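In this supplementary section we document a worked example of the pipeline. Step one takes a protein sequence of length 386 as its only input; no multiple sequence alignment statistics are reported here. Step two produces a three-dimensional model, which step three serialises into structure tokens for compact storage. The input and output of this example are shown verbatim.
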Amino acid sequence: MTTPPAPSPAPDSSATPDSGPLPGPDRVPTRAVDSKSRRFLPAAPLATAITALFYAAAAAAVVLSGNRLPLADRAVPVEMAPLNGPLGDLMMYLLPAGAAAGGLLALAIHLSRRPGPLLTGAAVAFAALYAGTVLLVAVDTRLLTMLGYIPFLLVLAATDPAALPADYGWPILGHQLVLLAGVGLWALTAATAVRKATGTCSHCGRSDRNRGWFTAAAARRWGPPVTIAAAAIPALYALTRFAWAAGIPLGISPDFLAMMQGNGMVHAGLGLASMAALGTILTLGLLQRWGSTFPRWIPGLGGRSVPILLAVMPASLVSVVVVPAGATYVRIFASGIPTGIPFDAVNWATGTPTLLWIAWGPLLAAATLAYYLKRRGTCSTCGRDG
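The serialised model returned by step three reads:
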């Protein structure tokens, strides 16, 4: 069995490869840590506390008024959407309670000049538990699908607004966006707690001690294989879907290909496969010169350094949203509910590329981190580099 194709976006850029990998660190344009980042990172725990406490109050008001939080589409079977069952009933109370506890914990991190091991450990554990709950349980494929269809939706909004989907589950999507924002805030809060506890620079995390894997030199060693692995997963998805459209039964039986050709399904994933191919190119761009310097043929930008956040922010977003999409497909395949699409040793390509999305997220996050470490330059607060 399988599910409809889903998109594989990646950091957006209009550049195309025009050179090979950088031969050495001297070829990578670096930038000092931005002043806005210097102001925001130490304030992350306070931002987390305010956001979490506000969410806790709003969610509690919804639940106590007898309504339900928009956790999942109620029409989806509980085998595919566990939040439609007893787990969802429990999460109705756990989410606001956990947000309140997390908000107080984040506030304690903000107020502490140097948190002790217990407080720091609690922050790291809470961040990990929250991220796991959100990415593996609370969020599904709809955000990734929405990102993949953004170009189409923009054209539709400009040409025929009435044709925009009205029943996409916008309250559910909005709630999932809020939960995903919390993942990012808690990652920054946990990092801030560790930096405070260890006495490293609160803005860049550097110290005079050996930082192991988190140096520019180390990132140049482990970054390339991780980045190539991250690019291979969307490439596999794109390759199979393009092959089907070309009449090649790659990873599926000839009979199933004939069935998809007959009902037009073989062409349904072409747009999403194109996004996957673009994602592969842009992920590999994290290793290329054009990923750090705009190609000279781009008017007005040629030869200038690519802003670090222009690559880091979109890539980070994609690395987060592909994990719940992959987890959703695992639940679908494990549920045993017939979908009309075979998934077996012969038809492995109907599901394998999407099952790999759980691994794609961490790999892309690591590739993005390596790119950031190589390019971040000298910290304007502590003066350290590397």
